[in-house]
Amino acid sequence: MRSGFSRRSTGSITGASLTSHGTVAGMGESGLKRAAVVYNPTRVTRSALQPLIDRAAADAGWGETIWFETTLTVPAKVLTREAVRSGVDLVFAAGGDGTVRSVAEGIRDSGAALALLPSGTGNLLARNLKLPINNVTDAIAIAFTGRTRNIDLGIATLSRTDGSIEEHGFLVMAGMGIDADIMANTSEALKKTVGWLAYVDAGIRVLPDARPFRIRYQLDGKPVHSAHVSTILFGNCGTLTGGLEMMPDAIVDDGLLDIAVLQPTGTLGWIDIWRKLRFENGFLRRSSIGRKLISATSGSASTISYLRSAGVTVSLDKPRHVELDGDEFGVVAGVRFAADAGALAVRVR
């Protein structure tokens, strides 16, 4: 099950009422800016959050905040669009990476700003933007008093095996291969209990049967290439949980996607990938001496290849699972990934 949903339905919001589908009715405080909070009740508690936001909004001279609770049947994207249509200036995404992604889809190109209250397992966008992870008060203060930064939104156009087409957004990273297979086999119940260790459990079950697969890919304006890969990742940002630098040169507002093609051979190949992510892409890259050491010790063959493009189209010999920001999005026959440049206005320090 994708994050950003709960099993409870919402009843009312501060200063307004909701229909059964979350439609806002009866609001209006002309002349004052307003914020909305779209929250996942399995991740955050409104009773704990509301006093903090109400106080910060009042201090900043904003009007009354409105609240939307996600449910299994009404996702954050739908509620965010309702909030935007009501004229709010700012939308808080309070939940995990799935909630943040869904809110971003709803706020895309609207002019309203996105504020992050990260409350999930990875909280990857907040980490990449250097926003508070464990300090709710600071995160709220940034929302009301920080600056606005326009960043890109990744767009995945999924071609299903039945011929249907779907479009979804992603903020950090999308992928096919071992990463997507792990996401497809991760227990939601275990993730809520032990956090990121649930992915380790899934990896132990997936890796013994993992085999490279053939793809054909075409970067925008370039010829078609083919490759056998274990995983291919498409990144708007480059940093993963634990500080792993999957794509050290990725920039969140350059209008481009960074692409990592993983082609390890055996156990030693995976060890080489781990070394590269932990050391080469991390602290060694940050100094001139470290960069010289990387250059001197790099062989001609690499287990990771990097590409960059505004868009890339991928076709598959056999259908594969695809994941977006750590959520499994089913099986696809092909997919196009692209960057929607500057589509999101995000509140940052």
From TrEMBL:
One Gene Ontology term from the biological process aspect of the record: phospholipid biosynthetic process
Organism whose genome encodes this protein: Mycetocola manganoxydans
Keywords noted in UniProt: ATP-binding, Kinase, Lipid biosynthesis, Lipid metabolism, Nucleotide-binding, Phospholipid biosynthesis, Phospholipid metabolism, Transferase
Family: Belongs to the diacylglycerol/lipid kinase family.
Cofactor annotation: Mg(2+)
Keyword Kinase included in the entry's annotation: yes
Pfam families xref list: DAGK_cat (PF00781), YegS_C (PF19279)
Cross-referenced InterPro entries: ATP-NAD_kinase_N, Diacylglycerol_kinase_cat_dom, Lipid_Phosphate_FormReg, NAD/diacylglycerol_kinase_sf, YegS/DAGK_C
Stated name of the protein: Diacylglycerol kinase
Region of interest (Disordered), residue spans: 1-20
Span of domain DAGKc: 30-161
GO molecular function, one term: ATP binding
Xref: Gene3D superfamilies: 2.60.200.40, Probable inorganic polyphosphate/atp-NAD kinase, domain 1
PROSITE patterns attached to this UniProt entry: DAGK (PS50146)
